[in-house]
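Supplementary Methods. Inverse-folding protocol.

Structures were first reduced to a discrete structure-token string of length 272. This string, shown here, constituted the complete conditioning input.
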């Protein structure tokens, strides 16, 4: 590769990084600006930083519990989706039975339905069960669209693992369940980590289900953000402060599983 092409590629990478990071830098700078500085017609790069928006929104307006609600909902729905979806994806990858592909397609179609057409019957059902404005309703709703994602992704990961490993493990005296838990799950850890990150992000960022199924007690952070848009003007400093805090759990969660994440994102993509 010539130096010109190498420099061009490097320039493209730098440009993409700048474009990707600019919204986050802008968001953080807005969160530490006064309202006057944030609303100037010409962007103000030199200013006296202030962190007054953070205690105002999280303590005075009691947005801190919403962070806890979002963490509980995202972690619980991710865990539930993995507990249901990973064994199901193993069955799709290893077993043969009538209607398997039709059933697999059914799992995928659950992601295709418009969310608004699904959330209304969910609201009616959860209302009759007394689950509206509880963690359970939001967790189950988020799991309903995350399970299909888990089944779809993890089937590819399990199909990448040679079936001879299953046969060798069973010849050593392992049952199918023992092979799954002792052998295949550790091998599929990169895929599980990548899938867990995607499920967590989807649940953390989801708005429609959480807005309709919650009222006050179990509101998530995404539901609370529109409350900062007021008739006399949007509180951009507080909105940016909430947005900064909202990105932190995703960054932390991704960092914790980064060991397996990159391998997991490509593990099931190429058939060997």
């Amino acid at each position: 590769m010539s130096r010109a092409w190498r420099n061009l590629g490097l320039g493209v990478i730098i440009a993409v990084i700048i474009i990707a990071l600019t919204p986050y830098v802008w968001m953080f700078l807005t969160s530490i600006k006064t309202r006057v500085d944030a609303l100037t017609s010409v962007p103000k790069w030199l200013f006296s930083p202030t962190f007054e928006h953070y205690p105002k929104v999280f303590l005075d307006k009691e947005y801190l519990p919403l962070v806890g609600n979002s963490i509980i909902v995202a972690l619980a729905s991710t865990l539930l989706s993995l507990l249901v979806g990973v064994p199901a994806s193993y069955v799709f990858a290893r077993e043969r039975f009538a209607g398997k592909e039709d059933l697999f397609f059914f799992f995928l179609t659950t992601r295709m339905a418009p969310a608004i057409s699904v959330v209304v019957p969910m609201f009616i059902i959860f209302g009759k069960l007394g689950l509206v404005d509880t963690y359970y309703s939001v967790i189950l709703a988020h799991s309903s669209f995350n399970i299909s994602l888990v089944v779809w992704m993890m089937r590819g990961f399990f199909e990448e693992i040679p079936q001879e490993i299953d046969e060798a493990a069973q010849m050593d005296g392992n049952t199918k369940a023992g092979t799954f838990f002792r052998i295949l799950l550790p091998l599929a850890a990169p895929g599980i980590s990548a899938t867990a990150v995607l499920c967590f992000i989807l649940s953390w960022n989801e708005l429609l289900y959480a807005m309709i199924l919650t009222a006050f007690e179990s509101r998530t952070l995404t539901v609370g953000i529109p409350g900062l848009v007021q008739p006399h003007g949007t509180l951009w400093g507080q909105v940016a402060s909430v947005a900064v805090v909202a990105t932190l759990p995703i960054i932390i969660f991704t960092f914790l599983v980064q060991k397996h994440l990159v391998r997991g994102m490509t593990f099931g993509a190429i058939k060997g």
